[in-house]
Amino acid sequence: MKREIITNLFVVKFANVNGTGSASANRLFSKAVFRMGVPVSPKNIFPSNIQGLPTWYEVRINENGFLGRRGGIDVVVGMNPQSMERDIGELERGGYFVYDSSKPLDKKMLRDDIDYIGIPFTEICRTEYTDPRQQQLFRNVMYIGSLAALLNIEFDVLTGLITDQFKGKEKLIAPNVHALELGFKYAQEHFDCPIAFRVERRDNVGNKILIDGNSACGLGAVYGGATVSAWYPITPSTSVIDAFARYCRRFRVDPETGEKNFAIVQAEDELAAIGMVIGAAWNGARAFTATSGPGVSLMTEFLGLAYFAEVPTVLIDVQRAGPSTGMPTRTQQSDVLTCAYASHGDTRHICLYPSNPKECFEFTATALDLADRLQTPVIILSDLDLGMNDNMCDPLEWDDTRTYDRGKVFTAEDLDAMEKRFGRYLDVDGDGIPYRTYPGTHPTKGSFFTRGTSKDEYAVYTEAGEKYVANMDRLLRKWDTAKKLVPAPVIRKTKQPCTIGVVYFGTSEAPTLEALYHLEDLHGISLDSLGIKALPFADEIADFIEAHDYVFVVEQNRDAQMRSLLISEFDICPDQLVSLLHYDGSPITARQIRREIRDWILRTTTTPRRRGRK
Amino acid sequence: MKREIITNLFVVKFANVNGTGSASANRLFSKAVFRMGVPVSPKNIFPSNIQGLPTWYEVRINENGFLGRRGGIDVVVGMNPQSMERDIGELERGGYFVYDSSKPLDKKMLRDDIDYIGIPFTEICRTEYTDPRQQQLFRNVMYIGSLAALLNIEFDVLTGLITDQFKGKEKLIAPNVHALELGFKYAQEHFDCPIAFRVERRDNVGNKILIDGNSACGLGAVYGGATVSAWYPITPSTSVIDAFARYCRRFRVDPETGEKNFAIVQAEDELAAIGMVIGAAWNGARAFTATSGPGVSLMTEFLGLAYFAEVPTVLIDVQRAGPSTGMPTRTQQSDVLTCAYASHGDTRHICLYPSNPKECFEFTATALDLADRLQTPVIILSDLDLGMNDNMCDPLEWDDTRTYDRGKVFTAEDLDAMEKRFGRYLDVDGDGIPYRTYPGTHPTKGSFFTRGTSKDEYAVYTEAGEKYVANMDRLLRKWDTAKKLVPAPVIRKTKQPCTIGVVYFGTSEAPTLEALYHLEDLHGISLDSLGIKALPFADEIADFIEAHDYVFVVEQNRDAQMRSLLISEFDICPDQLVSLLHYDGSPITARQIRREIRDWILRTTTTPRRRGRK
Amino acid sequence: MSYAIPGFRHPNLPKNDLGFTTKDYEGAVSTLCAGCGHDSISAAIIEACFELSIPPHHVAKLSGIGCSSKTPTYFLGNSHGFNSVHGRMPAVATGANMANRDLIYIGVSGDGDTASIGMGQFVHSVRRNVDMVYICENNGVYGLTKGQDSATTDIGSKSKKGEPNAMEPIDLCSVALQLGATFVAQSFSGDKHQLVPLIQAAIAHRGFAFINVISPCVTFNNTPGSTKSYDFIRQHMASSNTVDFVPHAEEITTEYAPGTSTSVTMHDGSAINLQKMDPNLDIHSRRSALALMQEYKAQDKVLTGLLFVDEDSQDIHTTMNTTKTPLRALSEKELCPGSAALEKINQSLR
Amino acid sequence: MSYAIPGFRHPNLPKNDLGFTTKDYEGAVSTLCAGCGHDSISAAIIEACFELSIPPHHVAKLSGIGCSSKTPTYFLGNSHGFNSVHGRMPAVATGANMANRDLIYIGVSGDGDTASIGMGQFVHSVRRNVDMVYICENNGVYGLTKGQDSATTDIGSKSKKGEPNAMEPIDLCSVALQLGATFVAQSFSGDKHQLVPLIQAAIAHRGFAFINVISPCVTFNNTPGSTKSYDFIRQHMASSNTVDFVPHAEEITTEYAPGTSTSVTMHDGSAINLQKMDPNLDIHSRRSALALMQEYKAQDKVLTGLLFVDEDSQDIHTTMNTTKTPLRALSEKELCPGSAALEKINQSLR
Lengths: 614, 614, 350, 350
Ligand SMILES: Cc1ncc(C[n+]2csc(CCOP(=O)(O)OP(=O)(O)O)c2C)c(N)n1
Ligand SMILES: Cc1ncc(C[n+]2csc(CCOP(=O)(O)OP(=O)(O)O)c2C)c(N)n1
Ligand code: SF4
Ligand code: SF4
Ligand SMILES: [Mg+2]
Ligand SMILES: [Mg+2]
Hints:
The complex is a heterotetramer, with two copies of chain A and two copies of chain C. Chain A is an alpha/beta fold. Chain A has four domains: 6-198, 3-Layer(aba) Sandwich (Pyruvate-ferredoxin Oxidoreductase, domain 3); 211-393, Thiamin diphosphate (ThDP)-binding fold, Pyr/PP domains (Rossmann fold, 3-Layer(aba) Sandwich); 412-485, no CATH class; 490-603, Rossmann fold, CATH 3.40.50. In chain A, helix 12 links the parallel strand 14 and strand 15 (377-383). In chain A, helix 1 crosses helix 5, helix 3 (121-128) packs across helix 4 (132-151) and helix 9 runs parallel beside helix 10. By secondary structure, chain C is an alpha/beta fold. Chain C has two domains: 22-241 and 279-320, Thiamin diphosphate (ThDP)-binding fold, Pyr/PP domains (Rossmann fold, 3-Layer(aba) Sandwich); 251-276, no CATH class. In chain C, strand 5 and strand 6 form a beta hairpin. The longest helix of chain C has 15 residues, at 37-51. Chains in contact: A-B, A-C, A-D, B-C, B-D, C-D. Chains A and B meet through helix 10, helix 11, helix 15 and helix 18 of A and helix 10, helix 11, helix 15 and helix 18 of B. One thiamine diphosphate sits between chains D (65-68, 86, 110-113, 137, 139, 141-145, 150) and A (232-234, 270, 294-295, 298, 325).
């Protein structure tokens, strides 16, 4: 078979068993490609268990910088007999299946449109190492070595990575490099290296970085000045707090006394976690928690309290596939409605939708400002795909002149200078945001009672209908104020005026933008696009939708939740909004988006468009 | 002042201090009017405390049978000095203020457009009774006696009520009647009785009954065959369970052994309450719980489990004013969105919206059938106004041939006869509803594992995307099936075709229908109307909306939640739906609805209608 | 209302070391039932803080939901207060304490709020040894929702709705002791001679200080013999489903010497037997306290007083080694690592 | 996987009184880590039910969320199971028990599931004395979420993320005893000679039977000396934030005589000291059990065996006087009062 050489444009998938230590080896691979200046986007696909079940690591290598999932696999490193049949089945025609040939391959695994590369990893390990744990661990490093030969990865880059990695434990460098070499050599000696899929050095990553969204959130919380964090473990949000703790230990511990400028409390559950955040924020600290869907459900009552009592509250929801426990290790964007309207009664919450780690970092810091400014919950909706995978993005930035916006807070001096009675819930300047005081500010002035019940402007309990209504209406004014403060949407217009637009948010960004590029490139279809970054929705979003006859709404849930939210917040005519949904727990692909848009356009230009119920 | 005599068309309001035992006396008043064949609708307005704060009892007397709140007060019985100024202020011109003249009235209380009727209730009591508790209790009975004279209520009806009430404690009859007489006589001797507002016997209540919605729900649960109830106290839902317990004690206890055919568990909180309901229903019993907003928020996680694991769950949400603790003793319809989409991920729940106690009774029994048939949560959205006030309605009915619809359940015999493997989540007949088995059915067949995680048709855990999607799509099919099973909307069409319609639900029914009557009667405006009784919305609702240019949506919340739900469920163009909102915690009045509709129509026939964002 | 003793309004009120009078420690007028034990506890808190000359704004008051949880509005009007949600005061107080270790935290809860919906949070706040005073105003009933049994209701008592309560009551002091609480006390609302110093000791304690205060509910007495006043009302109000008559009642007070016991008559005529301390109690021994409480329980007596204290208690900030400065007082300078550090991080991510 | 002993697959498997073999009591293949203590407990449950000749469908298995809570899938495949939500198994089991008092309810939970998020429900299911077996598979760690400390983690142990755990562990048996549990036992996952009969006794008990089973986690050992295997991995995998290497491990078993003690070595090389019963223990005395447990704790030993039982225990159905027929088996006839009764009610409402 005469083969086309494909350089820097393919997908490699590692099939492993979890608990075998493959994660760090696989990461080495991505990082190597990245250090060769070629954009990568790796995705972990792991089971909700600890050991013994199939796990995958899918790396897209794309020198054009398209970072979403592409769909389809070109090279599989099949280290898991359990999933081998399926893994082989997933390969595109012309793909390669790299496997451990210590055991012979079952005949039924053979396809004639792909190539097989058998390397006896286990056997080599068994002869090289005596400790069974070393046998297992170095087997992983070894297949990376082989891949280096097969895909033409610069070996120096790998050894450089190993050296960086074991800084401080230098004696581990040599054995790791040795394992790499074993794999490299075997491949080189037994196969025609490199194969048709190749990595070649480029200068296409610039100063970009590779970081997972959760680490970026944790770091954003450090930079944003969060001092209190309360949380309860849940996949896929746990690593947000792990990162916060890690960076706090690095930046917030007095080197002499060991005293900490932060407090992290592992709560007994999510109700307690958010309660602690509310208590801390009420008392003047910046505080946050992170959780996933089930935790958000449990926080529902407290979120209503924070809305109505107007306590700054930052919550990072790293979404996973619901409903209920759902698929805890799969991704989805399906908490959109729940977060927007969490809690009984007329509640509504500020929501931010980061699309990449840089936005995770920035939005977390911003959320702390927004929560203080608006005195209300701010929910960051990340997801498993963004949160737990390394994502390539622009370097993180911080302006050293930036100060924290603590919002409207009266100090003891303010209170002393004040002639009128302090009114905690008085809207003195029409933006719907009242002034607060921190507990302990002044011996005789400015104290008030915070409550989840109805109150007047002076925080005094009341059941008077008109006071209640005035307060509720002020909260709507505050909502309007928020519109101008939250991150603005990102609008991309084509050169020609066009009648169809695409709206996306969060991790649907990369695949959507890629799909749009290809629609233009391959099909000559140019579409405007808008990335939603926050609720309340900025007016530009409505303007964008109004300016187009039809607008696709790309989202990763079944019920078109963002579309519902757009319609109900804006009073948009639903016929204008075309749903583009994906909800099987995997990240949406550019392919799907491109196909669905293309097909819809073909269909609607041939058949008359009918506006009507879905 | 020459006065018009107003018969059977006025509003009396009692102003009391809570904890003084006024509730039963006030109830005597309503019941007397009712027994005179004149429709009444009494509403309790009470504080969220136990003793010492103002409480009111507002009784609308309307021989035409309009039962919603009218707005405005004609006669105040002002027994509470704390609220006197406000109570007097609320009187319509020409109204009467009846008060305890044991203490002289403050000058500043005097208005010249109302009449004052001072009766020294306390003084009389002090001379008549020595026990201070009797002094307080009989003072209440006494003012009812006076009102009888003033409003021309038949004294025999009152004594009849007293006799009925103290059946079994006959010795209390005479003192109560005596207190009535004391009040009656004093009024008759000192005032020109009757005054301008009068009750006159009619035959306008037919065989109707006077019952609160919560009692009707509790009774519906008994008739519907609920055997397990788990709950946690919360106003205004507590009396649902009180009633269930009361009727169970009456109908479900073996007279010989004292053994109970029911189990009521007071749970430690709402999470536990709904967990118990889910456990009981999973195990084949009919089970339900009742709560209010904060409880619904706490039940959010479990509701998602019941949706995804498909466990029948009946939840009665007696709504109160939110958000958060809000106004616990005030009414609202503001849990509409929360209930429809409770829980993270793509969840959606069956909701029923009763408008009167008869529907409370029926919908509760129906909910138990629907939950079993559809294997999913069914939420009944009542509210404080309906639940805790006596509402006049048609007598409750039960068809003795009616059997419980236990839905799709395989028995041991079914399993024995089955050749294929039992698939808990197999959609064998296309309606989206799978068959279940009760635990303990068969020693070797039909067992399955219930879980909140993703599973295949055989209830086996899976993380396979296609299985997940197939299951989620089946749940949508089930949702479609539900449309045909839930209570149908009530449509009222005017004789002439008309371009404007009104949609309402729950307790907005009575005031809306009254407003429509008056719009026709007073302003010559005839409008079609539709009462929504359930979610998923029947197609007729969409047809109704489509058939009109504009449709008002009447609801008692700030955020137009039902309107949002209509738009997002139906893809209706929002411009068509005009919000008519009321959310100060009091029940919406017919006056407000009439005025808003009239004004809108006047406005829009003079200014051009602009479709656009709200 | 009961604590609004007329004398307090006198112009020549005594002043404490800070120059404050008791008025400076009062709150809004109570809306509880006349005679409610909870009001007596509020009065004791006022007195305790006045006597200790605590600057009122150095206290933060927190509570859940219930009649008891309303009381923070009725004391220390110059302190910030937070009436949160049902059963969740401990979490909110823990968070508040994290933000500022310098304030005094007084958490008020009820038996429903603590022993039912709040049980999990109660257990874990004990375990964390958060520096706060936790007062459970224990009336054995759900007051605000009108008379349901709580988890501390005695076996066999009849709730207003008719069914006897067949479950063992939860003894909160024993649970707290078992879980390692560093300060555990029990008292009676009407015994201010005992209660005031206990509150003061609890404030002084460095860690979680739990006081279970038996606090009679005027309106919904669920004690075993609970029949007297209630039946009267029931008889007279057969037509109403709601209990809406509260007979006038006085605050129940008691005074008795340490080492002795006394019997206090409740509003409904039932009695509760209190034992004030016991010479055999070793307040530094958890086991001694647990054993003695059981002994008295067997005699149908409730042991009151300070039951256990660990003077070496280390609060959560100490174990976590948090900075001495209140966290909420830290600024950008201490908190933000700045752009140079960020650039290093970027570097490590390439 | 560890319980899938090859012998079980033998064609001539022994049969119990019902004619079932152990195969009829097995479940799906376990997906837990090789050597996980939880699998040993599943094996013990299988053996206990087989030996007692319980018809498999007479058991309902319930659990929360966690590695431990997954196990009901791996035993009694012919019984209905319910893997509910995190920490809420007690409520679901209580409801199930209300619906049908005739089945046997086995609830499985973990220490995170029970002592943290589930603490409130645990306390209240004890208090209600629901007729069920409650097994807490206690590994002192959050297994499924990869190694955080649980509330039963020993003081001073280091969690995988680095901070020492400075809080008193919650002793679930003591708490249960304190709260009036009618059956309390403690055991070790690898000691099937002790565990199997304890499970059988728990099943036979009429009321809430609590068994705390120490169950070592292969992967995330948080016992005090927890360093050995973990550090190896940490060293070798510095670049990865996730712990994704689980060294191969065998099930830890032990056998020792009643009245003696033994030291069991965990996967990470640390040791746990078990004391099998004590002749001084009066299993009918709550106080005796509490006192002895404390004594052994002081010696750094864990007392195992049946700690307390109240043979006169009355389960919740008995106290409530529920009908003997399972509620879920009642039909319209018993449940629906019919139209005539309704007409009477209507009459009373006019
Ligand atoms: C989530 C939630 N559930 C239920 C309620 C209703 N509720 C208010 S107070 C209360 C019980 C209060 O009892 P307790 O804590 O003993 O206080 P007390 O009134 O007796 O002082 C309940 C159940 C609520 N406010 N929130
Ligand atoms: C509401 C909720 N919060 C958090 C989680 C995540 N979670 C799953 S299992 C678990 C802890 C399990 O610990 P344990 O009960 O001790 O079980 P083990 O895995 O150790 O057997 C957590 C926190 C969840 N599933 N649901
Ligand atoms: S109901 Fe009871 S607890 Fe509540 S205020 Fe009245 S006396 Fe106090
Ligand atoms: S992580 Fe620990 S508890 Fe979970 S399966 Fe593995 S060994 Fe068992
Ligand atoms: Mg109480
Ligand atoms: Mg555990």
